[in-house]
Amino acid sequence: MSSKVYQLTMPKKIRFGVGALETLSGELSNLGTKTALVITDAGVNKAGLIEPIKEQLDKAEVTATVFTGAEPEPTLSKLDIIADEYRKKRFDILLGVGGGSSIDTAKGLSVLMTHGGRGVDYLGIDKVPGPCIPVIAIPTTAGTGSEATNIAIFGDTDRQLKLAIVSPYVFARLALVDPALTYGCPANVTAASGLDALVHAIECYTGKKANTVTDALALEAISLVSGSLRTAVADGSNEMARNHMSEAAMLGGIMIVNSGVTAVHALAYPLGARFHVPHGVANALLLPHVMEQNFCSDLDKFATIARTMGEETDGLSLREAAMKAIVAVKELSGDVGVPQRLRDIDVPQEALEDMAVATMDVTRLMSNNPKELSLDDVRAIWKAAW
Ligand SMILES: [Fe+2]
Q1: Which residues are close to ligand 1, an ion, with C-beta < 5 A?
Q2: Residue 187 C-alpha to ligand 1 middle, in angstroms?
Q3: How far is the centre of ligand 1, averaged over its atoms, from the C-alpha of 143 (Å)?
Q4: Residue among 59, 15, 51, 6 nearest 172 (CA)
Q5: Domain 187-385, CATH 1.20.1090.10 — does that match?
Q6: How far is the CA of 111 from the centre of ligand 1 (A)?
Q7: What is d(CA 237, CA 361) in angstroms, rounded to the nearest whole number?
Q8: 284 CA distance to ligand 1 centroid (A)?
Q9: Which residues face 14 on adjacent strands?
């Protein structure tokens, strides 16, 4: 039992499981949908994943426009351009189909197309004044959990930052999480997004806002990822492994709303904004180095992470057992082929100081870190990761 006051905020509706997509037409009809804008990216479109969605839209007699230009690591400037293009038309529903980038773009568009203005106007917490055009989130990767969160993340190119719109009005009206949509996801994307889901679980489990409910979800997600990610990457046709990864990602979204991520994401934001490192790769690379700073804050929890990831801790001291969690995450990210050092992804050493300073500005996440990190601590993390 938690000894602190905590609050639970839940997504509006999630339908999870193979076949969930087939319920889309009924949902659209129930919502009285006549027109829809589908937001996706070129890769998802090329993979043929929009076809079954179009069938559902046709079945519900919805007139749909498909936008395939969602960019990876979406920026505020691109969001504004897309909003300008589509705000003259009227859409009853926006469908975000893809990874977190497409879903976040759909969420951002729903705000701008309803309330006007620019993306920058809504950055921060509770800046969205009221309900927005409903979004249906349909993930085709297993990682970000954006389908279940009240958050949309965008890069600010000028300031080289990643910033968030956080509001109850950016929850998707419905998340349809059909793991079958991830069965064709390439191995490198499976690996990076799957490790993002692991980072969500570890950060939400160890963060200051963790509570009984998020702890339970986090341990389940850690178990799912550590048990299935290697298989999902090595053999993408393994449906059980894929299903487990989709479930872990979705649980991660629910956790993020109720506990929250910490320093790993705070470091990953400047790295993604400056060097366009995919979010999952950035997180995976930074995770063990942040854990090295954090593990002493709660040896019990870090030892539990180690055991949940299959590490043998019998006969070890609590400290040794906690450190096994770091070993476990390094081995998992190495096994699935994600880069291990910043120098391997062409990040120059001279960039570290600026990124350390920028990390300290991500106060929304740094304040949830289990250990209060000084600028020197953060510098040490960047140096170790380089
Ligand atoms: Fe993430």
Answers
A1: 196
A2: 18
A3: 7
A4: 15
A5: yes
A6: 21
A7: 42
A8: 10
A9: 175
Does the global pTM surpass 0.70?
yes
- The structural domains of the chain, with segments of one domain joined by +, span 14-182, 187-385
Quote the ligand 1 centre to 31 CA distance (angstroms): 30
For the domain spanning 14-182, the CATH number is 3.40.50.1970
Q: What is the SS3 assignment for 256-318?
A: HHHCCCCHHHHHHHHHHHHHCCCHHHHHHHHHHHHHHHHHHHCHHHHHHHHHHCCCCCCCCCH
Burial (Cβ within 10 Å: 0-12, 13-18, ≥19) of residue 382: buried
pLDDT in tens, the chain (386 residues): 667 899 999 999 999 999 999 999 999 999 999 999 999 999 999 999 999 999 999 999 999 999 999 998 899 999 999 999 999 899 999 999 999 999 999 999 999 999 999 999 999 999 999 999 999 999 999 999 999 999 999 999 888 888 999 999 999 999 999 999 999 999 999 999 999 999 999 999 999 999 999 999 999 999 999 999 999 999 999 999 999 999 999 999 999 999 999 999 999 999 998 998 999 999 999 999 999 999 999 999 999 999 999 999 999 999 999 999 999 999 999 999 999 999 999 999 999 999 999 999 999 999 999 999 999 999 999 999 99
Centre of ligand 1 to C-alpha 88, Å, is 33
CA of 280 to the centre of ligand 1 (A): 7
